[in-house]
User: Which sequence fits this backbone?
């Protein structure tokens, strides 16, 4: 099992891109918005396309061969339409299953996502770490191998949240999501035992940090929440370089983040409340590109 899905060692660093690069951030739904924010912060001059395959959400419910074929088809259209310099796959499920096929098919760098087990093991003081993930991520051997490799000295609790990604999408779309429903998903992360109690929670789905403030309010004690998005953005800049600067190494007009082009395979989730939520996350202008792909 490879552990370089986020590090992206299958792609060597490119020559630094001094023009505004095109970066494609891809997810099955809205979870990649957490990664999008870090990508724009790391490379504010980039032209960003945010692509959500919402017609097939959630990916965890698809059979593996179906998912691989699906992502390859969607990605082929996106790359043909936007010619990105780099693609961020902001989805744990797609990263673990489809990245090898994507790298074989397309001659551009891909940065994937894996649960940030290693930084969680470094951050814990009690030795009790919880991994909040989708049931599919919990079941996969790669998650347990990450734990064996990087957190063998910790007591790790794997929490398969069956509905948290859907609750996140609902909340961003303006639907009511109760504290009780959220607590049912995150409550098992908080464990007390002889060594102490959980002090680090890994957010192993890119959807989850979108409701972080509510988790913090519900938590029975303070914990460190580990979000993979900053590490993903750092890997992106390793591959394509940092933001272009003016001749005197100062900020230029290109350092002001521009509008994001949003591509959805159905667009059914784009309610007025969701548009407002996108605006709150710095996406003041969203151009929609219809991609009417249906799930076969």
Assistant:
């Amino acid at each position: 099992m490879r552990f370089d899905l986020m590090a992206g060692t299958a792609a060597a660093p490119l020559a630094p891109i001094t023009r505004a690069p095109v970066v494609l951030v891809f997810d099955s739904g809205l979870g990649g918005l957490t990664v999008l924010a870090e990508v724009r912060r790391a490379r504010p001059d980039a032209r960003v396309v945010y692509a959500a395959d919402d017609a097939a959400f959630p990916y965890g419910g698809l059979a593996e061969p179906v998912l691989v074929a699906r992502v390859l088809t969607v990605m082929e259209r996106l790359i043909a339409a936007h010619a990105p310099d780099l693609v961020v796959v902001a989805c744990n499920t797609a990263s673990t299953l489809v990245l090898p096929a994507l790298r074989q098919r397309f001659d551009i760098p891909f940065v994937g996502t894996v649960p940030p087990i290693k930084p969680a093991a470094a951050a814990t003081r009690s030795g009790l770490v919880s991994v909040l993930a989708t049931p599919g991520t919990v079941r996969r051997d790669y998650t347990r191998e990450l734990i064996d490799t990087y957190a063998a000295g910790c007591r790790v609790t794997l929490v398969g949240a069956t509905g948290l990604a859907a609750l996140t999408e609902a909340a961003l779309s303006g639907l009511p999501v109760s504290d009780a429903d959220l607590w049912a998903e995150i409550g098992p992360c908080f464990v007390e035992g002889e060594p102490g109690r959980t002090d680090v929670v890994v957010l192993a789905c890119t959807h989850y940090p979108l409701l972080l403030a509510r988790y913090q309010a519900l938590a029975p004690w303070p914990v460190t929440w580990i979000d993979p998005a900053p590490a993903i953005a750092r890997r992106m800049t390793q591959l394509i370089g940092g933001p272009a600067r003016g001749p005197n190494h100062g900020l230029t007009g290109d350092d002001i983040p521009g509008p994001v082009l949003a591509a959805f395979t159905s667009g059914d989730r784009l309610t007025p409340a969701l548009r407002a939520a996108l605006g709150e996350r710095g996406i003041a202008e969203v151009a929609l590109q219809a991609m009417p792909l249906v799930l076969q």
Notes: Residues 64-82 form the longest helix (19 residues).
